[in-house]
Amino acid sequence: MKTSLRIAATAATLLAFAAGAQEFPTKPITFIVPFAAGSATDQLARALGQSVTEQSKQAVVIDNKPGASGFLAAQQAAKANADGYTVLVTTNTTHAANEHLYKALPYDPVKDFAPVTLLGKGGQIMIVNLKVPAKTVQEFIALAKKDPGKLTFGSGSSSSRIAGELFQQMAGVQLLHVPYKSNPLAVTDLLGGQIDMMITDNATGLPQVKGGKVRALGMSSLKRSPLAPDVPTIDESGVKGYEMSYWFAAYVPAKTPAAVVQKLHDYLVAATKGAAAKNFYESTGTDAATSTPEELAKFQSAESQKWGRIIKAAGIQPE
Fold first, then answer.
1. Letter string b/e over residues 178-188, b meaning 16 or more CB atoms within 10 A of that residue's CB
2. Conformational region of residue 180, where left means phi above 0, alpha means psi within -120 to 50, and beta covers everything else
3. DSSP character for 318?
4. Could you write out the three-class secondary structure of 106-143?
5. Bridge partners of residue 122, in order along the sequence
6. Kindly report the CA angle at 45 between 31 and 92, in degrees rounded to 5?
7. DSSP state, 228?
8. Counting Cβ atoms within 10 Å, is residue 305 exposed (0-12), middle (13-18) or buried (19+)?
9. Distance between CA 204 and CA 53 in Å, rounded?
10. Judging by DSSP bridges, how do beta strands 29-33 and 86-91 pair with one another?
11. Closest CA to 138 of 160, 167, 163, 162
12. Angle, to 10 degrees, between the axis of helix 40-56 and the axis of helix 275-284?
């Protein structure tokens, strides 16, 4: 009799989950973004949100939580109700790099989240303020070697920071790191001459280059960007083997029902093919990329190991 009751209870629970997933969503969905408005992650989240709203008939609210290398956003998302109404649209900063940069994280990038889908991959661009006399990567390296520790580089994400740290190691220069809550904030200070250089995502850096407000020295990818074909790669500029890219992905709190995760996955994958997202990918040189939740989990694990190796090789001590 007890066994029958347990089976009945389990069946009722499964039916309730199925019904909930079938009805989902019945209210607005929040996309938490670990970086400021205007950042590449924010731009992508807003583009995807438009499509998800059209598909689900529910509003998508963008909640920007910049600062602390994504800690604030990741922690908030991890503690949210596991019902599918809170989605973390993030990058390798929170889910591959931070665990190697900090001794104690206020969240677990694996245990606290259920992966949904990969959303894109992109490269970065090395830019300097117009007061810096260097016109090429090699000229910048020469300036840095002339006065070790005098030139500064800013960063508002782990991708940006590690790109700068890796550049120091591979180019044999010493720069002063200036941290920011988000890349757009660092770019603002770059424009004002408060910092000398930064390596940032194309979505943030390219518009400033095209507007003539900063100077581009090199691309972090191994191939030139079709959006800036005249800008050489850092690798071809003499820092052989230099490469630093980043990725976007979506996660929900752990224990979110699988059926709800699948529905969000389907919404987001379809959204990457929408007009707004296509415009983002094309205008920023980002490659659209999606995955199953299982593929994202494996990808994240491999990326964590890769970022760990880069951070260790760069000699960065966990804070």
1. bebbbbbbbbb
2. beta
3. P
4. CCCCCCCEEEEEEEEEECEEEEEECCCCCCCHHHHHHH
5. 246
6. 90
7. S
8. exposed
9. 25
10. parallel
11. 167
12. 160
Write out the chain's pLDDT in tens, 319 residues.
445 555 544 544 444 455 556 789 999 999 999 998 988 899 999 999 999 999 999 999 999 999 888 999 999 999 999 999 999 999 999 999 999 988 889 999 999 999 999 999 988 999 999 999 999 999 999 999 999 999 999 998 888 998 999 899 899 999 999 999 888 899 999 999 999 999 998 888 999 999 999 999 999 998 899 889 999 999 999 999 998 888 999 999 999 999 999 999 999 999 999 999 999 999 888 889 999 999 999 999 999 998 898 888 777 778 7
Q: Structure tokens of 28?
A: 């607005």
- Residues 207, 241, 172: CA angle, nearest 5 degrees: 90
The answer to whether residues 188 and 108 touch, using CB atoms and an 8 Å cutoff, is no
Q: Which residues contact 61 (CB under 8 A, 6 or more apart)?
A: 28, 29, 30, 31
Q: Give 149's Cβ-side CA count (13 Å radius).
A: 0
pTM: 0.81
**What is the sign, positive or negative, of the torsion defined by CA atoms of 31, 34, 39, 41?**
negative
CA distance 158 to 93: 5
How far is C-alpha 10 from the geometric centre of its chain's CA atoms? 39
DSSP strand pairing (29-33 vs 60-64): parallel
Q: Any idea of the CA torsion for 170, 172, 175, 179, to the nearest 10 degrees?
A: 20
Residue pair 155/183 in contact by the 8 Å Cβ criterion: yes
Under DSSP, the state recorded for 232 is P
Cα–Cα distance for residue pair 63/76, rounded to 1 Å? 11
What is the 8-class DSSP label of residue 73? H
- CA-to-CA distance for 163 and 144, rounded, in angstroms? 16
